[in-house]
Amino acid sequence: MSIKQMNATYVPEEDRVMFRLTTHPSDEYRLWLTRAKVAELMLLSDKVSVVRLQTQHLPQQAKAIASFQQDHIKQTTQFTAFAPESRLPLGETPVLVHKTRITLEQNVQVLHLELAIGKTLSIRLTGDQLPKLRHLLQTIAEKARWQLDALMASGLSVQSSPAGHPPAAPATEPNSGTGTPTLH
Q1: Percent helix, strand and coil across the chain, each rounded to 5?
Q2: Is the bond preceding residue 25 a cis peptide, omega within 30 degrees?
Q3: Looking at residues 98-106, what average pLDDT do you find?
Q4: C-alpha neighbours within 13 Å on the C-beta side of residue 147
Q5: Quick one: which of 35, 38, 108, 170 has the most CB atoms within 10 Å?
């Protein structure tokens, strides 16, 4: 399965991100990502980007190239309106992601999302989709005011906030340009 479009919306009442992705030809998957899973995916994408480049470059060079590529994605990527699809294989209600991992299979990155319903979605990330996913998650984490970059840089573990605590950021309207970034 390959991605056509990715979308992330911070939902303050849940203190989670609703991650939606559409695939070829016309499926849409709706998933919940906790703060911890967003941070985990950001870290994994950074590591996999460097590991993939280390097949052709020295470790320090690979790290610098990956950083340059991520900066380029930040500067050139345009967020667009999300186009929902007609088929919802997991249903309309988002499904919680329990575990994440990214593998390299024949130099192609594959995102594996283990779901609370006992299924695993395995999605091929072609071209620049991994750095775009990283950018999307970083953007939505900033809108949620989760301060994940500071936590990841300090080496602290990231945990979801306990139930009953106030949301980290005010609600944002879907498709308002502030709460629902979408990448193609």
Answers
A1: 30, 30, 40
A2: yes
A3: 92
A4: 9
A5: 38
User: Is the separation of the CB atoms in 5 and 82 below 8 Å?
Assistant: yes
Say which residues have a Cβ less than 8 Å from residue 133's Cβ, sequence separation at least 6. Answer: 6, 41, 45, 111, 125, 183
Place of tokens 């944002």: 172
Alpha helices in 20-114 (DSSP H): 35-53, 59-76
Are 30 and 93 in contact by the 8 Å Cβ rule? The answer is yes
Question: Residue type at 101?
Answer: R
13-22, 78-87, 88-97: the lowest-pLDDT one: 78-87
Sign of the dihedral through C-alpha 151, 152, 158, 160: positive
φ, ψ of residue 55 in degrees (nearest 5): -70, -20
Q: Tell whether pTM > 0.70.
A: yes
From start to end of the chain, where are the E strands?
Answer: 3-11, 16-23, 27-33, 95-105, 108-115, 120-125, 182-183
